[in-house]
Amino acid sequence: MFDVSVSDSFIAQHAVTIGGVEEIPHEHDWKVTAVVSGETLDEDGLVVDFLQLQKDLHEVVGTLVDTNLNTNAVLNGKNPSTEIVAMYIATELAKRVPSPARLHCVELTEAPNCIATYRL
Q1: Does this model's pTM top 0.85?
Q2: Whole-number Å distance between alpha carbons of 68 and 45
Q3: What is the pLDDT of residues 23-32, one digit of tens each?
Q4: What tens digit of pLDDT does each residue of 39-72 get?
Q5: Are strands 21-22 and 114-119 parallel, antiparallel or unpaired?
């Protein structure tokens, strides 16, 4: 089994509701890493093309850049926790990963030492 990963970052604001109480809106410099897995390599010896995967991740993340995640339509009104944002990124990116490779997970860092991972 092979794993390859690419990373990106974006700035966005959110205010998560916890126990019925909404946080004060605040901004993060989010860091995202996407891991693609494959049991085989293609004729070029690749699981996936790093450059294409990076482009695809950047396009998905582009829907979140400089937005308020509480009002960003792509999250469909869900509480914009790090877990929900990671799930959104993973779900959208998975659609772009060519078979037989598959998106294994997306790791999203909200702040130092605060990381959520969504596995498919």
Answers
A1: yes
A2: 41
A3: 999 999 999 9
A4: 999 999 999 999 999 999 999 999 999 999 999 9
A5: unpaired
What are the sequence ranges of the domains in the chain?
2-16+26-119
Backbone Cα Rg of the chain:
15
50: amino acid identity, one letter: F
The whole-angstrom separation of Cα 53 and Cα 45 is 16
Q: Nearest 10 degrees: CA dihedral of 24, 106, 65, 18?
A: -10
Q: At residue 14, what is the residue type?
A: H
The tokens describing 37, both together, are 């897995």
* Third-level CATH fold of 2-16+26-119: Tetrahydropterin Synthase; Chain A (3.30.479)
Percent of the chain residues topping a pLDDT of 70: 100
Task: Provide the H-helix boundaries in 1-120.
Answer: 50-62, 82-94
Residue 20 has phi, psi (to 5 degrees) of 85, 0
